[in-house]
Amino acid sequence: MRKRLSTSESRGRARAGQRRPGRMAGTRARGPAPEPNRLARHLAIAPGVLALLGVIYITPHALDYGEVRIRQAPFQVEHIVVQGLDRIALEELRDVLAPAHGVPLVDLDLAPIEAGLSAHPWVAEVTTLRWPPSTLKVRVVERTALAVTAAGDDGAPHAVDRSGMAFAPASETDVARLVAIALASPAPVGEPDPRLVEALALAARFRDRGLEVPRRVTLGLPQREASAELRLRGFAPAIFIERDAADAQLDRLAQLLSANVGPAIAARVIDLRFGGRAVLWEGS
Q1: Are 101 and 218 found together in one domain?
Q2: What is the domain range of residue 200?
C-alpha cells in the first residue's frame, strides 16, 4: 500500500532537501575569507610611516645644525664693498662700517648701518645688500653742490644742493668754482631755505638763455629787498633786476650783451629795473 504524504509533509521534505550555494549540509556558516593582499598593503605602508617619523625627528636637528653652520665662517662678514664715493673718503665711513666685520650675514642689521651712513652730510642716498657668503655691499649717492653761501651761526661758507639746503662746509675749490649766493642773513644748515631756492632758479635762467651762470647772486640787500644784484665772471658791471620780473629783464640783458657788448662792458652798473629800458651807469 502506498503511503501518501500530506501536502504539509511533502513541503517540509522538499525544503529539507534543498542546499544553499557555497554551504554543505551539516556545516555552520562562516564570515567572508580575508583578502589575500591586505597584509601586503600594510607592509607596503610601513616604510612610508617610518620615513615620515624619521623626517619628523631628524628635521629639527638638521635645522639646528644648519642654523649654527650659517652663523660660522665662511658666512660671516669678511668683505665690505662701498661704491659711489667721490667727495667722501672711505675713512670717514669706517666707524659706521667696522662693527659689521665678523657678524653672521643672516644676523646683520642693515638699518643702523644705513642710518649711520645717511647722517654724513654729503650722503644723499644709501642702499645696502647682503651678498653671500661673506660680503656686505654698500651703494652711496652723494649730494651735488651747486652753490656756496654763508650758513650757520658763524656764517662759514657751506655747499648748497639742488633743494636749496646748505648741507656741509665748502672747500676752497667749491668757493672758487661755484655760484656764490649772498643773503641778508646766514642760511640755516641742514634744511632748505626759500631764498637759496630762488637764487638757484635765477642762476639757472642764465643757462636757459645761453648766458654764463653768474659767479655771484645777491638777494635782500638793505633798501633793495625787491631787487637782485648779479655779477658775471669776467664781466665787471654789476647787474640789477627786479626779483618778480626776472624773466623779462634777463631777456633784455641777453639782447643787450649780444647786440652792444662794448658799452655794456664799459659800464659800472647795468640797471634793468626801468620799465623796458636798460640803463648803463658809468664812472665811479
Answers
A1: no
A2: 147-281
Q: Are 239 and 272 in contact (CB under 8 A)?
A: yes
Domains of the chain: total? 2
Farthest CA pair distance, the chain: 177
Q: What is the mean pLDDT of each run of 10 residues along the chain (284 residues)?
A: 44 50 49 56 58 58 48 81 96 96 94 97 97 96 98 96 97 96 96 97 92 93 88 92 94 85 83 87 70
107 and 217 fall within a common domain: no
Whether 129 and 162 share a structural domain:
no
- With residue 256 as reference, give the H or E element that holds it: helix 246-259
Among 142, 159, 175, identify where a domain stops. Answer: 142
How far apart, in whole angstroms, are the C-alpha atoms of residue 196 and residue 213?
15
- Put simply, whether the predicted model's pTM sits higher than 0.85 gets the answer no
Q: Residue 198 and residue 187: Cα distance in Å, rounded? A: 13
